[in-house]
Amino acid sequence: MKIGSMLIDSVIDGENLCTPEFIYPDVDPAEFEKYTNHYESVTGSFVVSIGSFLVRYNDKVVLFDVGLGPKPIYPMTGGALRSSLIALGVDPAEVTDIVFTHLHFDHYGWISHNGEAVFPNATLHCDKRDWDFFVDGHRHVPEWESMASTPETDAAPIKFAPFRDSIRFWEGGGCEILPGITTIDAPGHTPGTVVFELSSSGERGLILGDLVHTIPEFLEVWPFLVAEDQAAARRSILAIRELACRDELPCVGSHFPGLRWGRISREGDAYAWKGIADQ
């Protein structure tokens, strides 16, 4: 994918199997029937990707999130981020910046390993609200997270311990954290969830992060299982969906299959998604 002079590659770390009934417990199961083409037929589940977006432009080598890390717990799989980067010709030491969409464990897993930085030359960028909530807030780890990770080694305060004094913070929307990379406030999933607008040479695109987790969720604004504030999450999805439709912006979510880009459009009272081929 290219946005102006920005070259954007999807970097797969792993995947997760999610039945629609589990991740959307408040949705009428009949609603799922029109989206069976988004399932894997063998398991009847969404297969959601886990990984990062690598953005290269000018002298910048930027990663948005850093995947699940080396010790996934089934049904999550992971551990391929480094080899995926090397396949793209990028050594971890070449990464100049890491930008976090939010601080759930499947987005920061490779930030450190055994107490050492995996990307030793990268500047880290994070919304202050998520840092305060996940790292400095003495947060109780919920049951779903303790079942899907190993909090003793994977919790945010432990993983980010080497970087406590070197994070660059922003808060909310409208912050150009790097040239051509601006935050759009989208709280709800977590207190500091943001969407990023990439802009270069008059072209724009959106990295949605975990604003939504599947394409049908974006189309229908289904309430996801995990949200610190469901009402705020719904408002954020509606606002970003309107922006993406109105300006016909290419966009991608952090768990869309293959981390592939597309465009959302309105067709009468409904919404449609069309994938974008490599360009």
Catalogue the unreliable spans. none
The average pLDDT score comes to 95
How would a textbook summarize the main sheet?
7 strands, mixed
Q: Topology as H/E string?
A: EEHEEHEEEEHHHHEEEEEHHEEE
**What is the alpha-carbon Rg in Å?**
18 Å
The overall strand count is 16
Strand content: 25-35%
Individual helix count: 8
Helix content: 10-25%
Q: What is the SS-derived class?
A: alpha/beta
Q: What overall form do the CA principal axes indicate?
A: globular
| Strand adjacency order, main sheet | 1-2-3-4-5-8-9
Terminal CA distance reads 5 Å
Sequence-ordered SSE layout with sheet pairings:
Blueprint: E1 2-3, E2 6-18, H1 20-23, E3 46-57, E4 60-64, H2 81-87, E5 97-99, E6 112-113, E7 116-117, E8 123-127, H3 128-135, H4 143-148, H5 151-154, H6 156-159, E9 167-170, E10 176-178, E11 181-185, E12 194-200, E13 203-209, H7 215-220, H8 230-246, E14 251-253, E15 262-267, E16 270-275
Parallel strand pairs: 4-5, 5-8, 8-9, 13-14
Antiparallel strand pairs: 1-2, 2-3, 3-4, 6-7, 10-11, 11-12, 12-13, 15-16
Concise summary:
The protein is of the alpha/beta class and 279 residues long. Helix content is 20%, strand content 30%.
List its traits.
five-stranded mixed sheet; 279 residues; single chain; 8 helices; 30% strand; alpha/beta
Task: Describe this protein's structure.
This protein is of the alpha/beta class and 279 residues long. The chain is built from 8 helices and 16 strands. The chain has helices spanning 20-23, 81-87, 128-135, 143-148, 151-154, 156-159, 215-220, 230-246; strands spanning 2-3, 6-18, 46-57, 60-64, 97-99, 112-113, 116-117, 123-127, 167-170, 176-178, 181-185, 194-200, 203-209, 251-253, 262-267, 270-275. The strands form 4 sheets. Strands 1-2-3-4-5-8-9 form a 7-stranded mixed β-sheet. Helix 2 links the parallel strand 4 (60-64) and strand 5. The longest helix is centred in the last third of the chain and has 17 residues, at 230-246. The radius of gyration is 18 Å and the shape is globular. The N and C termini lie close together (5 Å).
